[in-house]
Amino acid sequence: MSLSSKKSWVIGFAAALLTTSPVLALQAAPASTVSYIHAGRLLADPATGRVTERQTLVIENGRVREIVDGFVGEGHVVDLSNQFVLPGMIDSHVHITNQQGEGNRVARFTNTAADSAVQGAAYALVTLKAGFTTVADLGGSSDAVVALRNGIAAGKIPGPRLLVSAGTVTPHGGHGDANGVSSAMVPVLRTNGVCSGADECRRAVRERVRSGADIIKITATGGVLSDTGAGLGQQFSDEELAAIVETAHFMGRTVTAHAHGTDGINSFLRAGGDSIEHGTFLDDELIRIFKGNNGWLVPTLLAGDYVAREAARPGTFFTPNQRQKSLEAGPQMLDMARRAHRAGVQIAFGTDSGVSPHGENAKEFALLVQAGLTPLQAVQAATVNAATHFKLQNEIGRLTPGYAADIVAVSGNPLDDVTTLEKVGFVMKGGVVYLQE
Ligand SMILES: [Zn+2]
Q1: Which residue of 3, 148, 253, 259 is most buried, as measured by CB atoms within 10 A?
Q2: Where are the domains positioned within the chain?
Q3: Beta bridge partners of 77
Q4: How far apart are CA 105 and CA 201, in angstroms?
Q5: Å from CA of 300 to ligand 1 middle
């Protein structure tokens, strides 16, 4: 913390608190003051890949006012003159209110929505401090994630900008239904996102929008971590998928589908779906359809990597159903992303964090590079691409005048070594500093 160096111990003590207390951190740099960020190296617009040196970002009212050559400004100056500065990162797929682990299966019986929101607030802070200034929660219970989103947006609690699907639209017995519990518990655990038949599925989409969904998340195929032996193939009928996509679009929402099996990915894209989460068994014909639709792929390689390792671990906490599907899907994902990227499919960064631990989101970068993306392309996936995927390309993902002041900094050069993004030393969101080491 540079701001404590020449001041009294009292101010030094307060400054030390700033790094540990989220409440104080919220007040560290009021959005109405002008801040001057001295960036040693700056990747302002990842779309161009151009890195400039010795730049000052002038921040006002939570936005980038201008970027000027050299180090200028007085007052609230942030010295990042030996850092590499880039836009805040975006994770298109997280589960902010929970995290896999021993005892996780019991949580759905014991947790109230309030418990989930409190837990989500803790994970949101960890995620923000890892440099992710915008994330999408795909599937968390609507009361918890909507409260969390609104609380963060109002500045009441610290966290990334949150987009929420406010639950999942899923077929009866499908990946998002109450699986692996006694029938007596199903009415308690089943949500109103569960549907069968086109009309019911239209209603399920409308219920999600009513609950506060920014985007619609559906489960087009079976999933790895649902405790059922129903496989990883298509679960909604073509008619249901068409009804879901049409209704969501009527209501101004894009639809993203959790999808592993080839048949489910195909049917969803043919129905006009906007993006695919996972995409595990994507084949060459589907890649052609994908490109024709201008759809986005969110490969969640970190989830594939995590479940394959957990399933192979002696004493794993996975159930036999989870273990079997993990071993089937996990090892496929890197190769899938490699083929999709080589063919020119648009990739948006997403980790499925909550499957893997929150705050480790940036581990996805190394996996994307293993799949053949250059470090710059991996950074683009987490900035300009993810912003466009969420139709926020005029708001976030770049640092140019008028854009949100969502800014992170690292010590190394992520375009040489993308793993430097696993340890950010500075995080600003909307002009407010949340981390400064
Ligand atoms: Zn997920």
Answers
A1: 259
A2: 2-87+400-436, 89-389
A3: 36
A4: 27
A5: 8
CA of 327 to the centre of ligand 1 (A): 17
Q: Rounded CA gap, 177 and 171, in Å? A: 7
Question: Which residue in this structure is represented by tokens 């199903």?
Answer: 186
Helices of type H across 228-355: 238-250, 262-270, 284-293, 301-312, 320-329, 333-342
The long-range contacts involving 292-297, CB below 8 angstroms and separated by at least 24 positions, are: 293/269, 294/346, 295/269, 295/345, 295/346, 296/92, 296/346, 296/347, 296/348, 296/385, 296/389, 297/337, 297/340, 297/345, 297/346, 297/347, 297/348
Provide CATH code, domain 2-87+400-436.
Answer: 2.30.40.10
CA of 78 to the centre of ligand 1 (A): 36
Q: How far is the CA of 61 from the centre of ligand 1 (A)?
A: 34
Q: Which of 22, 34, 15 is nearest to 156 (CA)?
A: 22
Whole-number Å distance, alpha carbon 138 to ligand 1 midpoint, is: 6
CA of 355 to the centre of ligand 1 (A): 7
Name the residues around ion ligand 1, CB cutoff 5 A: 352
In the reported structure, the alpha carbon of residue 310 is separated from the centroid of ligand 1 by a whole-number distance in angstroms of 16
**Digits of tens for pLDDT over the chain (437 positions)?**
333 333 333 333 333 333 333 333 444 445 568 999 999 999 999 999 999 999 999 999 999 999 999 999 999 999 999 999 999 999 999 999 999 877 777 777 888 899 999 999 999 999 999 999 999 999 988 899 999 999 999 999 999 999 999 999 999 988 877 777 788 887 877 787 899 999 999 999 999 999 999 999 999 987 766 666 666 778 899 999 999 999 999 999 999 999 988 889 999 999 999 999 999 888 888 898 888 888 999 999 999 999 888 888 888 888 888 888 778 877 788 999 999 999 999 999 999 999 999 999 999 999 999 999 999 999 999 999 999 999 999 999 999 999 999 999 999 999 999 999 999 999 999 999 999 99
CA of 71 to the centre of ligand 1 (A): 43
Read off the pTM: 0.90
Is 31 exposed, middle or buried (CB count within 10 Å of its CB: 0-12, 13-18, 19+)?
A: middle
